[in-house]
Amino acid sequence: MADKKTVKKDTKKDSKKVKNAWLKYAAKDLKALNSLCDEYRDFISVCKTERECVDEIVAMAEKQGYKNLYEVKKVKAGDKLYAVNKGKAVVLFVVGTEPLEKGMKILGAHIDSPRLDIKQNPLYEDTELAFLDTHYYGGIKKYQWVTIPMAIHGVVCKKDGSVVKVVIGEDDKDPVVGISDLLIHLAQDQMDKKAAKVIEGEDLNVLVGSMPLKDEEKDAVKANVMKLIADKYDIEEADFMSAELEVVPAGRARDYGIDRSMIMGYGQDDRICAFTSAKAIFNCSSIDRTAACILVDKEEIGSVGATGMTSAFFENIIAELLDKMGAYSELAVRRALQNSHMLSSDVNAAFDPNFPSVMERKNCAYFGRGMAFSKFTGSRGKSGSNDANPEFIAKLRAALDKHEVSYQMAELGKVDQGGGGTIAYIMAKYNMEVIDSGVALHNMHAPWEVASKADIYETEKGYEAFLKEI
User: Fold this and answer.
1) To the nearest 5 percent, what fractions of the chain are helix, strand and coil?
2) What's the pTM value of the predicted model, to 2 decimals?
3) Backbone angles phi, psi at 267, to 5 degrees
4) Which of 39, 133, 203, 469 could form a disulfide with 399 if both were Cys (CB 3.0 to 4.6 A apart)?
5) pLDDT > 70 fraction of the chain, expressed in percent and rounded
């Protein structure tokens, strides 16, 4: 049993963890924090789709000396490698000195975000206005996505095999598009509806034009819009059938707050954890057990599909890695996965005093208190959750304290209020140790989400501590 002095000392040390992280920063810390957050703000300003995130992460990796795993014949300790899955997911590795069978230290985040997807037969005209028909992706409050400037990002794949990249609405000289709403003067019936029905999913039609093409007799406005698109991108209307176009908020991420202590931007769930995870592994050079950073697609719709976490991509990549090490066997793959430790890097909800009733104050995340850990996610009775083992949490606490990382433990709302999930439970099926961790947000799943710069900085430091110590 600990003596009274030890207990008093430990209690005092633990009490410091609830204080705002800003209070501990010296000038050098603030310089490092601002440098990281400036880079992050630029990252989410240009990376608004999964493909854009993968392209940017690969470019960053190659500058750090990473090589394409598929192009390497042999793998040895110290190698830095990446592998891309269908342009929408990527894995980064720093190969350790110990055999891969001893497990890995894995950071896993997702790079898809709620948005509006353009349908495969989208362009139509109604009362001399041209629209694009959409299908929303992920959990959104539909009413939040109207009357704001929107941009179109994505790719169009043509029958000849060429891929055309499309970005409309981000350059200052570009037009923007958007979705109209009913004027308040005529909205009596609309205002009586429940929030879920104020804007219906099939009414999320993006207005893209009102000017008719001269001498065109039928659907002249639609014809004019299609002509402009064809002239710029050399595509035809039928090419929409093999396109992947996403409608997202237009504009760059911005510093938020008069004190510039926060960042407002689109897609911070979960690109904020993807960016900090990637930065952490880039800062990892020599290492004992192999480090991995998984950035995947489709989490917002259940991690399904070939580019989601439920696909066999990561498992197959481990087999490839072992093969290039000259150590492949089915048993080696199983051991490598089972002996791994993972941080499922995903966001949490920060306490908002405008909406206090949904949070349990002793067990929720707060802005400025650092990296947020969730022992479990799920909803109500922990349904659909990974529930992390306390032995693993204790190791993490020791690692974070050693590197003076501010962190907090948090649940996503009150017990019966709702909940959410991540990719943690999917990786836990391999019998590895997994816990959820990341940055807490305001406005999660809204077009513009808000994060604390201090929490971004502490989370990146926390990911580094995990890679160094676990």
Assistant:
1) 40, 25, 35
2) 0.93
3) 75, 20
4) 469
5) 95
